[in-house]
Design brief:
With 398 residues, this protein is of the alpha/beta class. It folds into 2 domains: 2-173 and 306-380, Rossmann fold, CATH 3.40.50.2300; 175-299, Rossmann fold, CATH 3.40.50. Helices cover 35% and strands 19% of the residues. The relative contact order is 0.14. Pfam families: Peripla_BP_6.
């Protein structure tokens, strides 16, 4: 596990440099990792009000998660750097610490314990990807930790239970909400049947139930097709799908491998609808989309072309601090950090783990430049779900 402060050059790379770097990073992270100490200690301060606030972010950089996690992390870092440039939180700098993992249980446990043992750390913010966030939700605080850390705005696709919601504070719509939006959109166009493909058996076990439930509620027939990693001869039926709409549940690498096998029947168009774990910018660079195939990605945030103030702020900060193009995953990371900062800034008195947790448990509505987080009890009452399309010629619309 590697640890970096937010001003580290570790991710100050453009996308092409990132692909070269991430291949080497994946190899280095393949074995068991050990925690590194903080790269720099804060100078002694006379009072708590003068000390930086520490916020940690656990990031899964395993091969299948890099395209999502990397953009999400860059979005978060741009938000924290922009915040500090404007004076921080109530005049205090926020020290944003990144704990990079390879997604293995051992590396996650190490990152979890490292965050809790940083005495100045007041919260975990924007932990990514989904499998990592779900594992962190299930982890109890280390035995030697004095208090629990709030898990704020994780990139989490499964709804949390009421007991988990005591320390986990969701911001983004879960998979069920995304799938409902995707299916409802196409049901309104008169489609009566959709194909459904899962990246692998594990994803199918997690998601098939509510996919079928949503489809049934909309009067659609959902035909479950062999999962994308299937090797049996029956998987060959995916080469020429009979469905006009195929819902794909999985990540970017799996989607690219699946789409490369598709061949739309002559004169017909096939639409593959994916969810928020697909990065269309990366998919476009990977290329190879067959003729007659268009890919639609359901996003858990506003469109990056939107005029909402929070989207403009994200694009401005990204352009100021990183040599990057905007992406939905980057905007999500930016929103996760902004939401955390709003909560910290609203606390009266000392900012500690306990006061952060207490402020979050009140679940006050937060409006971040048009992106509103609102709750009824422990459940969100609103969710932003949008869609973008990757055309056959590599253009992204929306």
């Amino acid at each position: 596990m590697a640890m970096y402060p937010s001003d580290s050059p570790a991710v100050a790379l453009n996308r092409r440099q990132w692909f070269a770097w991430s291949a080497a990073a994946s190899a280095a992270m393949a074995g068991d990792a050990t925690a590194q100490p903080l790269l720099s200690a804060s100078p002694a301060r006379n009072t708590d009000a003068e000390r930086p606030l520490v916020v940690a972010q656990i990031v899964d950089l395993s091969l299948n998660q890099q395209d999502v996690s990397r953009d999400f992390l860059v979005g978060s870092r741009s938000a924290w750097q922009n915040l500090n440039a404007r004076g921080g939180v109530r005049g205090r700098t926020v020290q944003h610490i990144t704990l990079e993992t390879n997604g293995s249980p051992a590396s996650l446990q190490t990152a979890w314990q490292t965050a809790h043992r940083q005495t100045g750390c007041v919260a975990l913010s924007g932990c990514v990807g989904n499998a990592t966030a779900a594992a962190l939700v299930a982890m109890p605080p280390p035995a030697d930790s004095s208090s629990a850390l709030a898990l704020i705005a994780p990139w989490l696709h499964n709804a949390v239970t009421d007991s988990e919601a005591e320390t986990v504070f969701e911001v983004f719509p879960d998979h069920q909400t995304q799938i409902a939006h995707a299916i409802k959109t196409h049901a309104s166009l008169g489609v009566k049947q959709i194909g459904v493909v899962f990246a692998n058996v594990q994803v199918q076990q997690q998601s098939q139930g509510y996919v079928l439930q949503v489809a049934k509620s909309l009067g659609l027939e959902a035909q479950i097709l062999p999962h994308a990693s299937a090797k049996s001869p029956i998987a060959n039926q995916l080469i020429t799908p009979t469905q006009t709409i195929i819902l794909f549940v999985g990540g970017t690498p799996e989607l690219h491998a699946f789409v490369s096998k598709l061949a739309a029947p002559p004169g017909r168009q096939c639409f593959v609808v994916a969810l928020a774990d697909v990065n269309l910018q990366v998919l476009a660079q990977m290329g190879g989309t067959p003729k007659g195939i268009s890919i639609i990605a359901t996003q858990a945030v506003p469109l990056i072309s939107s005029s909402l103030p929070v989207v403009r702020a994200y694009r401005d900060a990204l352009g100021r601090f990183f040599d990057e193009s905007p992406s939905p995953q980057g905007l999500a990371g930016f929103i996760a950090a902004r939401y955390t900062a709003e909560v910290l800034g609203g606390i009266t008195g000392p900012i500690t783990r306990a006061t952060v947790l207490a402020a979050l448990q009140r679940r006050a509505d937060v409006n971040m430049g048009g992106y509103v987080v609102a709750y009824r009890g422990k459940k969100r009452t609103n969710a932003y779900v949008t869609q973008s399309m990757l055309t056959q010629d590599g253009r992204i619309i929306g």
